[in-house]
Design brief:
The chain has a single domain, classed as Undecaprenyl pyrophosphate synthetase (3-Layer(aba) Sandwich), CATH 3.40.1180. The chain is built from 8 helices and 6 strands. Helix 5 links the parallel strand 3 and strand 4. Helix 4 runs parallel beside helix 5. Bound molecules: farnesyl diphosphate (FPP).
């Protein structure tokens, strides 16, 4: 079956209400590898194929923003060999896909404490951001060395600096002012948060931004997450009654 013939894709187009912004906690690479007697890095390698599929599926369905949790601040505590393998994968992804992503109209941004990356990884990040800047089909945010609490602390510091500089009154600090200091300031909040591998946790990901997101948790491990799984998540989203704290109409 080609992707264009997918009954789920046909159905979700008929339903309408495509989420503007999807965020994904890509979990289960290690378990996927363990089940096959492979090193954890093989799970991350397999997870790259799912990233490619999901990017294409978002373009196909008209999702405007996709935010992926690729590496948390806590992940720096993993064994050095796994961190090295993940950084190498990042560089491989950028070297192999930057021009194709640009041609597809995908604008890539990397969000997080990027100063902790190796100079080579940092250079690769700068390269993909500049190569793809201006893409209009999809904004792809990859959270790297990212923690939501650290992002909020950074935002609070930036607001405090603006107060100290006399640019901002403390009383003028509102939700919009804080939102404007987050890495995600340029995009609307996620409508749908997907987590793979069945864990029911937010794991310090976009805590402020998911205030009204719908959650879709699937037992599927990230390397097994296909285009069809994304369509199923969007169909699940379309069946929700989003009230934003109000009552149903
Ligand atoms: C979680 O699985 C996944 C990660 C920590 C890394 C995700 C990275 C990729 C999918 C590849 C790189 C992506 C890009 C965009 C360059 P886990 O290792 O925590 O799995 P486990 O819970 O089963 O151990």
């Amino acid at each position: 079956m080609t992707a264009a013939e997918s009954p789920r894709l046909v159905q979700l187009r008929l339903n309408g209400a495509i989420p503007r912004h999807i965020a994904i906690i890509m979990d289960g690479n290690g378990r996927w590898a363990g089940e096959r007697g492979l090193p954890r890095s093989a799970g991350h390698q397999a997870g790259m194929a799912s990233v490619r599929e999901v990017v294409e599926a978002c373009i196909q369905t008209g999702v405007a923003v996709l935010t992926l949790f690729a590496f948390s601040q806590e992940n720096w505590q993993r064994p050095a060999a796994e961190i090295t393998a993940l950084m190498a994968l990042l560089e491989e992804y950028i070297a192999g896909e930057a021009s194709e992503l640009r041609d597809k109209g995908v604008a890539v941004r990397m969000l997080g404490d990027l100063d902790r990356l190796t100079p080579a990884a940092r250079g690769a990040v700068d390269r993909i951001e500049s190569t793809t800047a201006g893409g209009r089909a999809l904004a792809l945010n990859v959270c790297l060395s990212y923690g939501s609490r650290a992002e909020l602390v950074r935002a609070a510091r930036r607001l405090a600096e603006r107060v100290r500089a006399g640019e901002l009154e403390p009383g003028a600090i509102d939700e919009a002012a804080l939102t404007a200091e987050l890495y995600t300031a340029a995009w609307p909040d996620p409508d749908l948060l997907i987590r793979t591998s069945g864990e029911m946790r937010v794991s310090n990901f976009l805590l402020w931004q998911v205030a009204y997101a719908e959650f879709h948790v699937t037992p599927v491990l990230w390397p097994d997450f296909t285009r069809e799984e994304l369509f199923a998540a969007i169909l699940d989203f379309q069946n929700r009654d989003r009230r934003f704290g109000r009552v149903s109409t």
